[in-house]
Structures are given as structure tokens and as C-alpha cells.
Amino acid sequence: MTFIWNLLFFIILIGVLVTVHEYGHFIVARKCGVKVLRFAIGFGSPLFKWHDKQGTEYVIAAIPLGGYVKMLDSRIEDVPQAYHDQTFNYKPVSQRIAIVAAGPIFNFILAIVAFWAMYLIGVQSPKPIIGDIVKDSIVAQANIQSSSEIFSINGQRTNTWQDVQLELSRVIGAPDVIVEVIAKHQQQPKSRVLDLTYWTPKPESESLITSIGIKPYRPNIHAIVSQVADKSPAFNVLQIGDKIIAVNGNKIADWRDFQTQVWPYPNEEIAIQVERNGRELELFLKLGVTKHRDGKTVGFVGVSPTVEPFPPEYTNHQQYNVLAAIPVAVEKTWNTITLSFAMVAKLLSGEVSIKALSGPVTIAEGAGTTASYGLVHFLSFMAFISVNLGIINLLPLPVLDGGHLLYYLIELATGKPVPESVQELGYKIGLILIFSMMSIAIFNDIARL
Q1: Which residue from 297, 266, 440, 303 is spatially nearest to 362, judged by alpha carbons?
Q2: Which residues fall within 8 angstroms of residue 210, CB to CB, at 6 or more apart?
Q3: What residue ranges do the domains of the chain occupy?
Q4: Whether the domain at 126-216 and the domain at 221-307 fall into the same CATH topology
Q5: Are 220 and 306 in contact (CB under 8 A)?
Q6: Residue 146: strand pairing partners
Q7: 115: confidence class by pLDDT, cuts 50, 70, 90
Q8: CB atoms within 10 A of CB 443
Q9: What confidence tens digit (pLDDT) does each residue in 258-306 have?
Q10: Buried b (16+ CB within 10 A) or exposed e, 237-257
């Protein structure tokens, strides 16, 4: 069931992102007088297709992993002299740049719209309050105390843990990072300095927040079953409302304690003591197998706990009216764009491992998970992926929009197009690099399963 849910929202997500991206190319091409032959969403066998009055064919295909806009182009097919004014490659270089750049730009516009809708609905987020600090960690060495709220990082206000994560990603390898924190029962923030010179985070296995030694505050998570997954190891054993008392005779204090007791026994039978309807029962359950975020194989039960809500004073509520939400959404999009460019640079420089690259499986899981949390979370995820799609397409690699833009900018500067032989070589190199990146991303996805 989870697979179908994830797949459904992956298709919705990619469908929206690709349609908006290709529509950018399409609408600007038409505004520039270029004849559009085909507007396709997806690859493979067409599921639906139709034509408009201008002769453009619209196609929705079976494999929802991309799309394209086919324009009249004499480099691809013979074009009669009478149609040269509608031919892409005969248009001024400035118009060709506008047509190619429109796809990524529309992805950024989509992110603004998604963030705008998110803030219009209202965002309820936990404040970045520290629950605990790992001994001898980077944060511990900076004399930051537990129960403190992270107010800002290098002058950038951090209202949520997501803000903290984003700002930390900007300062990987920086020697003096100024963190302002508000201690419990205090009103004014105090500055602390983090030395991240030798910080080597592993985003594929842990968050940036935990890697510097912070354990975010979380409400109590009781070892009381609130949900049992279908066809899971617990399906015919545990029931909603069961209070887990012990595992293999070891007393359980809370949900984290339960996880710690279960993880070491993948594919093994364990004894679980529960309280059900006022009676204590001993049950036997053969665990399944799953992978922890660090890649280790652990025992899997298939139940969800009962979680206390966050206290009101530990949460931020951000909601704006129709007009006020616009600048907030634009700023959020801009911050996401600059962050994503910074992460690409750190990937290229080796500061961030290529294991951090994610492929379609991880994106599908993210789409399904955020959709299960609600519309606001899904909109936020859509905006983030839309920005990243725009940035990836701006990379100066032939076969991507950025590669075409590079060629056209050279033409604009020199007054003559890049030779066909150079373009062909560039396309071949670009294909190899893109294929390599996709292979690494898919390999990382498989390794995380």
C-alpha cells in the first residue's frame, strides 16, 4: 500500500514539475513566433494525444519521468523558406536564450507559488529548541546548552529546524560560524562560535543537525500502539492501544527504548509484554527487516507510537494574507535557490559526498511521506524539488538547458555560433556525465532500501 501511495504522489509531483517546466519553453517559444510541433509529458507509448488549431500535437505518455517541447528546427529537418521566420534556429540569439531559460525560470516561479500557497494556508512548525547535546561534539565544544533555542546562524534567522538545516548546509567547512541561542527562561540571544573547519557531515546517513551533536527536542513518544501496518510482522499480534511494557524481559520506558530493544534482532523472534484492556500479556513476534538511516539492517515491527503534541510555546505558526505571503514566498524561494547552488558547488568540490545524491526512489518516498503529513508539507516538498529541477537544468552541460545557454552566450559574445563539431562533442560528453550522475543517484537509492 505504501508503494502505491508513494508512486501516486511521485507521478503527481513529477507531472506538475515537468508540465510547468515544459510550458515555460512552450509559451515563450510561441511568444517569439516559433512554431511548436509537439508538447509531450512523459516518454514511451502515448496514452493521450490531440492537436490544437495551430497544429501543435499534445502528448501524455506512459513513463512520467520527463517531457519535451519539439520546435520547428532546420538542423533536425528540412524547413521550406516560407517557414524560416517560425524556425527556432533562425531566431535571434536573444530569443533562443529566452526560450531555453524559460523552463528553469518557470520552475522557480512554481516554487514561489507553492510557498505562497503554503504560507496562505499556514505553517505550524516546531521551534529549533535543543533537546540534548552529544558529549564532546562540535556544539558541546561551543558551550551551547540543552533546552536552548537556535535563534540565528551567521545572522540568518532560524524559525524552524528546516531553517537550521538549510543554514548549516551553507557553512560546511567554515572556521567561525556565529550561532545565536536563547537559553531557557532567557529573553535575549547570546552568540556562540562553531568551528566547522573539519566538519565532514554524511547527509546520506544523518542530518546536518545531528552530525554537529544536536538532538532536537521532541515531545514524549509513548510505547503505546496507535497504528498497525497491514501485512507487517505485528499485524496479527499487536493491537491499537497496546501498551508495551517489556521486550525479552527488559522493561520499556518509552518508544525510543522500544526501538533500541527491537533493532538488534532482525528476522528473529522476540517476546513482548503488553498491557491490553487492563491485563498483562506475553506475546511472541517474529521481526521483519528494514534499514536504519545509517544503512545498518535492523529489526522491524510495523507499528506506530502515540506521540504527545508539541506544547504551544515550542511551536511557530506562520500564516500570511494573500499579499503579505508573496514577499515571504519569494524570499523562501531565493534562499532555497542559493542553498541548492551552494550544495552543487560543495558536491563538485568534494566537501559533500556523492552519496548525498538522490534519485527517483528517494523522491518518491519524499513525495509519499510529505503527502501523508498534509498539503502544506507536500507543497513545501514540491517547491524544494522544483527549485532543484530548475538548477540541475541550468548546469552548463550539453543536453541540459544550461548547456544550450552556454552555447548561445558564446554566440552572443563572439557574434557567431559554436561550430557543430564542438556542439556534437559537447553533447556526447554531456550525455556521459548525465548518465553517470543518474547512475550514482539510482545506486544511492538502491543502497538506502
Answers
A1: 440
A2: none
A3: 126-216, 221-307
A4: yes
A5: no
A6: none
A7: very high
A8: 14
A9: 999 999 999 999 999 999 999 999 999 999 888 776 667 888 999 989 8
A10: bbeeebebbbbeeeebeebeb
126-216 — its CATH code?
2.30.42.10
Topology of the domain comprising 221-307: Pdz3 Domain (2.30.42)
The tens digit of pLDDT for each residue in 309-330 reads 888 888 888 899 999 999 999 9
Could you tell me the three cell numbers for 150?
537556535
Q: Which of 305, 194, 325, 322 is nearest to 256 (CA)?
A: 305
Is 22 noted as a catalytic residue in this protein?
yes
- The b-or-e profile of 31-62 (16+ CB within 10 A means b, else e) is ebebbbeebbbbeeeeeeeeeeeeebebbbbe
Among the listed residues 22, 180, 204, 365, the single catalytic one is 22
For CA atoms 220, 123, 110, 400, the dihedral sign is negative
Identify which of 388, 391, 392, 376 has the alpha carbon closest to the alpha carbon of residue 115: 376
pLDDT at 244: 94
Q: What is the pLDDT of residue 293?
A: 64
**String of b and e for 179-198 (b: at least 16 CB within 10 Å)?**
bbbbeeeeeebeebebebee
Q: What is the mean pLDDT of residues 24-34?
A: 96
Mean pLDDT of the chain: 89
Cα distance between residue 383 and residue 20, in whole Å: 12
